[in-house]
Amino acid sequence: MEMSAAPGAPGVPGPQRQRRSGTVKRRRWGGLRQQWKLLGLFEIDQQHQFYGLTCMMKEGLAAAIQTTVDDPPTKDLSDDDFRSEITHVHKDFTLETFAGPVFASLRASLGMTEEEYQQSLCSESCYLQFISNSKSKADFFLTNDKRFFLKTQNKREIKFLLANLKIYMEHLRKYPHSLLVKFLGVHRIRIPGSRKKYFMVMQSVFYPDDRINARYDIKGCEVSRWTEPAPEGSQIIVVLKDLNFEGQFINLERQRSWLLQQVEIDTNFLQRLNVLDYSLLLAHQPLHHDERNQSLSFASLIVRTKKSVNPGSSPVHAGAAAVPGAVPDDGASRRSSEANSSHGGRFSPSRPENVSPGTDTPQIPDFKAQNRRLLPNQKNPLHVIDGPDQRYFIGIIDVFTVYGFKKRLEHLWKSLRHPGKSFSTVSPHTYSRRLCQWVQDHTK
């Protein structure tokens, strides 16, 4: 006997189609629940697949960092420092450290001692594995205090960073409050009978994360930029995306103009490196009552301003040769800021409250020229900005995707597949401008 098919399901009886639909829904829900179970932080104990690897990392890093503890880098870095490769041989593996003196110099400029860096990376406490909803195939590890990320990278990405390390260091010297992620070490571990593995150490943008209640990965576009939030009350860490943030604002008030200009400076730098697909990491947490609307006395203003200005951040010498990825000198930045101010531009840094134009002293720099901000008196100040009600954690990560032939083809394909919609694969110039515009539209 022939059975009539249900509408929209040729050849499938109605009851059977309903049962199949219910099975599919259960499978989807089960898969989603399983995905949620896998997201988050997991302690890498002795039963964990990465326990052996992370123990080797710790042992290798302890010896590598001890080298710079015993022999601190000189103030002036040489070309040899940038090309430096030091190998430490251990019982079951070797660890190679690239440009060790350069990264030690950067750590020192961030006010970090080698001993505390070593203690955090090499303590007896287990590393944590971070599993996110990112499409990246990299492995992410966190130190137990959550201060530093260790991320595996492919050889191409490591070569790109080392090739542009001078430019990156110069950018951070000129703009010590850059939002770019701070790379603190690059290494390669060799284990007999296994593939060599490259990894880098980075400062965590979301540190300390005790009270963070939402995390976002922002690219300034709409295609594939929604993530299913974790179930309410869940302890699972889900990094949300652009579309999840719609209808919300980063409320900074007087700090807003600083953020707009720094994002423009940093993305302009990345544009000159011909990269795209980087992300603006964003998180927020409510301020405690005693942290809100703190007025700055003139004395505390001077103290915090001294802390805020890097003594090594003077403009590049006028006769210095231009390098790829260089940003305009401080004078040009000042002229640009003033031009923006006179035309109602949005990237002009504002003078802090409680400081009138006539009260600047030698201890307080010209904020327009220096593009500095007052650092909060807390941990990780370079990635933290306080608004009137919320504390925001902000940083720019994933800066290794070069706009080459493959990405140009991908841009063409996505243009055909997503007509009229914004997607991540666009030219570095468009990507930079679009992310600046996103920050402009979502701050107040």
Descriptive labels:
alpha+beta, five-stranded mixed sheet, 15 strands, 16% strand, globular
What does this structure look like?
This protein is of the alpha+beta class. Helices cover 37% and strands 16% of the residues. The chain contains 14 helices and 15 strands. The strands form three sheets. It has an eight-stranded antiparallel beta sheet. The protein has a five-stranded mixed beta sheet with strand order 10-9-12-14-13. Strands 11-15 form a two-stranded antiparallel ribbon. α2 runs antiparallel to α5. The longest helix has 25 residues, at 14-38. It is globular, with a radius of gyration of 24 Å. The protein starts with 13 loop residues before the first helix and ends with a helix.
Detail the topology: elements first, then pairings.
Elements (H helix, E strand, L loop, with lengths): L13 H25 L1 E4 L7 H20 L8 H5 L1 E5 L4 E5 L1 H10 L4 H9 L5 E4 L8 E3 L5 E6 L1 H9 L1 H10 L8 E8 L6 E7 L10 E5 L20 E3 H4 L10 H17 L2 E2 L2 E8 L11 H11 L21 H13 L24 H4 L13 E3 L3 E8 L3 E2 L2 H13 L10 H14 L3
Parallel strand pairs: 9-10
Antiparallel strand pairs: 1-4, 2-3, 3-7, 4-5, 5-6, 6-8, 7-8, 9-12, 11-15, 12-14, 13-14
